[in-house]
Amino acid sequence: MNASSHETKIRQLVADVLASLLRPDGPRDAHGCSFLERLREELMRRKPEGEWFGTWMPYCFKWLDRPGHVWLPLNRRYALLGSTDTTGKTVHYDQHADLAVTFRADPRMIKGASWWRDGGGNQLWLYGDDPKSRRRYFERLANVLAAAEPMVIPCGRWGAAA
Questions:
Q1: Alpha carbon separation from 72 to 60, 63, 69, 81, 136 (Å, rounded)
Q2: Which comes out higher in pLDDT, residue 36 or 106?
Q3: Between the N and C ends of the chain, which has fewer C-beta atoms within 10 Å?
Q4: How far are the Cα atoms of 26, 73, 99 from residue 154, in angstroms, in the given order?
Q5: How far is C-alpha 123 from the geometric centre of its chain's CA atoms?
Q6: Could you give the count of Cα atoms lying within 13 Å of 19 in the half-sphere of its Cβ?
Q7: Side-chain half-sphere CA neighbours of 8 within 13 A
Q8: 47-99 pLDDT per residue, tens
Q9: DSSP H or E stretch at residue 54
């Protein structure tokens, strides 16, 4: 088995595990709540900005003018994932193409992604300000990542100053 087929199998396994955890009839905790119900409760309780989720989880994908389907994941502050910069300084997204996700096909056509919003075709959101938009966030994210090429992130780049 070569490295790329091994990575593909691992990615599919992760997507399958996420999908099984996120099913309404998925595994239950000691109180009879599913992982999805607990996750929904937590996401509804928290604000999307601030905290870990708004810093480290993709809020949207910004299209980069590069060959192929290259999109940069951004956090709730429209900064690089992991960046807690709140100064409002301009992020030059094209300078961070090494952190972008390359999709095998146009991500606007990914089955099961059901993007929350499409910003004129060059920005795709996984959730919005309404807490209801986060109900299917992890399901959407799993479908999006399953459609991406294997990612190689340069060591030390996540969380770099925007």
A1: 8, 6, 10, 9, 21
A2: 106
A3: N
A4: 35, 15, 8
A5: 13
A6: 14
A7: 8
A8: 544 477 888 889 999 999 998 899 999 988 888 888 877 666 678 899 988 88
A9: helix 51-56
